[in-house]
User: What shape does this take?
Amino acid sequence: MGNHLLAAHHDLISRVAEALRRAHHVAVLTGAGVSAESGVPTFRDAQTGLWARYSPEELATPQAFERTPHLVWAWYRWRRDRIRRAVPNSAHRALVEVEHRAPRFTLITQNVDGLHHRAGSRRVIELHGNIMRTKCSREGIIVHTWDEPEDDAPPMCPRCGAYLRPDVVWFGEMLPQEALRAALEAATSADLFFVVGTSAVVQPAASLPVEAARHGATVVEVNVEPTPVTRLAHYVLTGPAGTVLPALVRAAWPTP
Assistant: This one.
């Protein structure tokens, strides 16, 4: 299937690869589709087994954490355990190669699993935080070490005694302003903007390709199905990111 897909896209891949070679600033927005290829369930697909009777909206809110901190912490601990078993895939690794090759590169992700960092990407803007980090629920300060309670209670902040929580953006919370500012700057200054594996419906991330196109960037979408970005994109490569992105890298910078 992979070879058939690439053969069908051969001319398109050649054109995008040429744009990739010539680009001065490559920016990439990634979503859940990239992590799904590593076996990380999407936010809603994570509701299996014990957690099937809960919706994400019941657990991923400040109100839920205030009301049932033990339950919310247990859900995130379960999700972290699953993510630890995942490994970066060929799409993650291809983006590392683009970062090494491009004069300027910015990777913006909606994913919270940290797989881009584990793959070796350095310039990563995490719009929705990182599930593997923990912060104080009162002060918002990242906490690296704490005493793990014997029961299912969240650990306590060693500074102030408040509960610790995952460093992710919950429903009803603002995105980290510095991350959002950096993402907008990248979108408006890039000359080539990739939208990879994202449904492009969650704001404000969904506005980034729009801003990129408005400021003159060539927009490339890589996805297995159409999204709101499809009509906007200059090039649409339909297929899994783990197949399409490595093919683009090979076409842009062939090895002898």
In short: Strands lie at 25-30, 104-109, 124-126, 129-136, 164-168, 192-196, 218-223, 235-238.
